[in-house]
User: Which sequence fits this backbone?
């Protein structure tokens, strides 16, 4: 018997946050992520120093997150797409104040109220424009319940290491499914936070957490500094997984539930002798550009499998400098591509200069 | 010998406020309260958006600058992070009573153990004098150039009266700093609002009816007169709620 | 070896719980597995379903669209998934709620009046475990000796009084 337990993705994520030292959770009810809040409401009051608070709005919740983050403690909120739109103001302030925090987006179909079924259509929002101003968030995309755990630990760690917001970009399938999972993630690295608001105790000058710089030359420097940091992160922190890429002539790019479906399609295509593999981005920002560029030298075509209207296609084309055609296999609005959908697209790729 | 000294909880920075603006007095009263309670080392302030956006330069305590209207939510986070923190917000009328109404109402309803300093000068100051949620009926502003027409844009929000209906609020008082007597009263109210928090009594808000000579288009002395003749009759000074006093009387 | 199981019926029939039994049994055996409640368009139309995949290798898509084993607990579920079942697969039908027979001839169909048995045997609400027991036997989903250990793990400590009836229901279906 293994040391693993069976947990739902949303609950495993919540428990992982607690194990990673998060003692403050603020949220607002929205389908399909409510289990995270429900789990936190049950667990936090039983833990020393644990705080669960249901805020009056998504906006209030993210600002409560800002308050705790400013004091240097691990804090999180979770929501689903329409709620994340409301939090966008706070995401921009978190970036402008260089505060670490963990935000979970269990995506549903949009735009507007959209639907409540799984989606990946917040890709642009997460990787490009999570709010006003020049900034990025670390974006982590789990594709198993185990990664719902490991990426929470990773997200908190990277957030503190770089003083940035980390976002777990998940979907309803990842949140609802149960898989065996190990919660043991080892030691948590501690980072010094001399900037944190802990009260001066009359021993030091006041710390100020602020995003306002009225002098353009100061604000420019702040932006330049932040982008130097982003550059270093793009260089070192991109995470991805490869599946059957050794001899692949077609490369599927997919994350989250789309990568799970793609795995089945690859197995079936391989059984038919088609040389297809997959690069699965685990971090969507930073995007694993180098791995894709390298793959573009070997493969004849890419297939982006998504639950959105081809938002990731742009990143694949940019990463590979449009060296090879990028086909899109997608379902949206809460629909999930089937193994057959992906298999058909692989067949199509063999004809546009894909595998022989 | 009596020496007039600057409160310890104020920095040496020169205030940027306009001549005749009462922000300076209110900053001083807040700092005096922090000094008197001996809480400077564990006080964390939350600056809002508006004329007082740079309050973090003036208070000699840890400070965080919040988005427009969100100060009570940020303060909730800071307070819940460590209840030993003494947390105050310093907000204007546009911030607290328009864009941040929900945050104001719900932090009061929760009985959040924080102190809110609410500066009501009936106008948006920093953006150059637009109509505020507290602009008086008939009052001329940049965006109510013919005077606030209540038929079209409705009536001002009376914050203390509104919040007094909430069971969660502990202490609500409206004061002014237009004369020595009122400044003394305001000092007492602000001190009490902080003391309540130190004693864990819950949500305290002090509304300070204030002037904006620049955007009212009045000389500082005339602005005080306008405040007395127009603001105070519409926003009567006094205690709107004092939960512990009521309970004390009940005993 | 990968087995894809789909349990389908009305909400409230304990579909997810019987799915959980299989997931816990898989965990006990150290198998790779996934459990996914109906989350998608299929939850519309009054049917609830649960996808369980048990495998020796890493599980790909957790969504079962072509089950090796279909457990149908109402007529709409049989109508919907009969044709999706793989050739040579197994369909278990609750014959007290579904009057028709399985039409396909390339699958193995088994019938058990699970709901009727539940009320007769004083096992109200446990038709799900009765039909599951039958499926375990007919599809050889797990060794018989694992039933009790799995159930002990599945039933929470506070609800130990539910252990006996659940096990009895499982055995009833297994031996039917």
Assistant:
């Amino acid at each position: 018997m293994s040391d693993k337990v069976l947990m739902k993705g949303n609950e495993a994520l919540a428990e992982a946050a607690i194990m990673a030292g998060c003692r403050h959770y603020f949220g607002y009810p929205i389908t399909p992520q409510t289990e995270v809040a429900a789990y936190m409401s049950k667990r936090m009051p039983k833990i020393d120093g644990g705080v669960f608070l249901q805020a009056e709005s998504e906006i209030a919740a993210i600002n409560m997150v800002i308050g705790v983050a400013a004091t240097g403690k691990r804090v999180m909120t979770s929501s689903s797409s329409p709620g994340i739109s409301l939090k966008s103001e706070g995401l921009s302030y978190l970036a402008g104040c260089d505060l670490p925090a963990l935000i979970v987006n269990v995506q549903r179909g949009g735009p507007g109220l959209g639907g409540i079924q799984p989606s990946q259509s917040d890709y642009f929002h997460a990787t490009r424009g999570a709010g006003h101003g020049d900034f990025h968030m670390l974006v982590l995309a789990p594709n198993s319940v185990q990664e719902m755990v490991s990426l929470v630990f990773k997200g908190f760690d990277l957030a503190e290491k770089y003083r940035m917001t980390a976002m777990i970009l998940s979907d309803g399938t990842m949140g609802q499914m149960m898989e065996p999972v190990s919660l043991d993630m080892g030691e948590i690295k501690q980072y010094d936070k001399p900037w944190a608001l802990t009260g001066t105790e009359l021993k030091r000058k006041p710390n100020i957490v602020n995003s306002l710089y009225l002098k353009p030359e100061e604000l420019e420097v702040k932006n330049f500094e932040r982008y130097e940091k982003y550059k270093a992160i793009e260089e070192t922190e991109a995470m991805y997984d490869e599946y059957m890429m050794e001899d692949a002539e077609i490369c599927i790019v997919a994350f989250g539930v789309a990568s799970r479906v793609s795995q089945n399609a690859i197995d079936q295509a391989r059984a038919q002798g088609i040389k297809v593999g997959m690069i699965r981005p685990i971090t969507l920002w930073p995007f694993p550009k180098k791995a894709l560029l390298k793959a573009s030298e070997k493969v004849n075509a890419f297939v982006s499998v998504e639950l959105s209207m081809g938002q990731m296609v742009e990143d694949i084309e940019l990463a590979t400098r449009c060296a090879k055609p990028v086909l899109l296999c997608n379902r949206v609005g809460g629909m999930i591509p089937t193994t057959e959908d992906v298999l058909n697209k692989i067949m199509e790729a063999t004809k546009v200069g894909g595998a022989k | 010998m009596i020496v007039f000294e600057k409160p310890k909880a104020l920095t040496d920075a020169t205030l940027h406020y306009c001549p005749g603006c009462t922000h300076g007095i209110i900053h001083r009263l807040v700092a005096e309260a922090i000094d008197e309670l001996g809480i400077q080392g564990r006080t964390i302030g939350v600056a809002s958006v508006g004329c007082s956006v740079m309050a973090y330069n003036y208070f000699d305590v840890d400070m965080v600058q919040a988005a427009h209207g969100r100060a009570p939510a940020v303060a909730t986070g800071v307070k819940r992070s460590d209840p030993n923190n003494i947390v105050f917000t310093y907000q204007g009328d546009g911030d607290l009573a328009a864009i941040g109404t929900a945050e104001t109402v719900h932090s009061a309803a929760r009985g959040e153990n924080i102190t809110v300093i609410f500066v009501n000068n009936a106008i948006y100051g920093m953006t150059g004098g637009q109509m505020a949620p507290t602009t008086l009926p008939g009052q001329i502003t940049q965006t109510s150039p013919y005077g606030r027409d209540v038929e079209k844009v409705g009536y001002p929000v009376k914050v203390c009266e509104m919040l007094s209906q909430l069971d969660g609020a502990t202490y609500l008082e409206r004061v002014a700093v237009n004369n020595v007597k009122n400044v003394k009263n305001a000092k007492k109210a602000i001190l009490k609002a902080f003391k309540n928090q130190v004693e864990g009594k819950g949500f305290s808000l002090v509304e300070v009816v204030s002037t904006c000579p620049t955007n009212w288009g009045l000389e500082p002395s005339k602005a005080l007169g306008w405040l007395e003749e127009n603001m105070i009759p519409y926003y009567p000074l006094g205690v709107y709620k004092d939960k512990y006093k009521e309970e004390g009387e009940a005993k | 070896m990968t087995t894809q199981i789909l349990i389908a019926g009305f909400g409230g029939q304990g579909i997810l719980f019987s799915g959980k039994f299989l997931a816990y049994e898989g965990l006990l055996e150290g198998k790779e597995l996934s459990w996914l409640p109906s989350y998608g368009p299929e939850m519309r139309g009054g049917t609830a379903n649960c996808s369980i995949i048990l495998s020796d290798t890493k599980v790909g898509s957790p969504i079962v669209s072509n089950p090796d084993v279909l457990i149908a607990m109402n007529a709409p579920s049989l109508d919907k998934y009969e044709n999706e079942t793989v050739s040579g697969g197994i369909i278990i039908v609750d014959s007290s709620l579904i009057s028709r027979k399985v039409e396909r001839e390339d699958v193995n169909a088994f019938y058990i009046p699970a709901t009727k048995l539940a009320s007769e045997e004083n096992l109200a609400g446990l038709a799900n475990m009765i039909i599951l027991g039958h499926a375990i036997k007919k599809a050889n989903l797990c060794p018989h000796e694992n039933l009790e250990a799995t159930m002990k793990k599945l039933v929470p400590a506070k609800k130990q009084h539910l252990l006996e009836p659940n096990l009895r229901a499982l055995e009833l279906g297994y031996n039917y």
Notes: Chain B touches chain A at residues 11, 40-44, 46-47, 53-54, 56, 59-67, 70, 73-82, 84-85, 102-103, 105-106 (CB under 8 Å). Residues 180-198 of chain B form the longest helix (19 residues). Chain B is about 40% helix and 20% strand. Strands of chain B lie at 43-47, 62-65, 86-92, 115-120, 123-124, 130-131, 169-176, 203-209, 238-242.
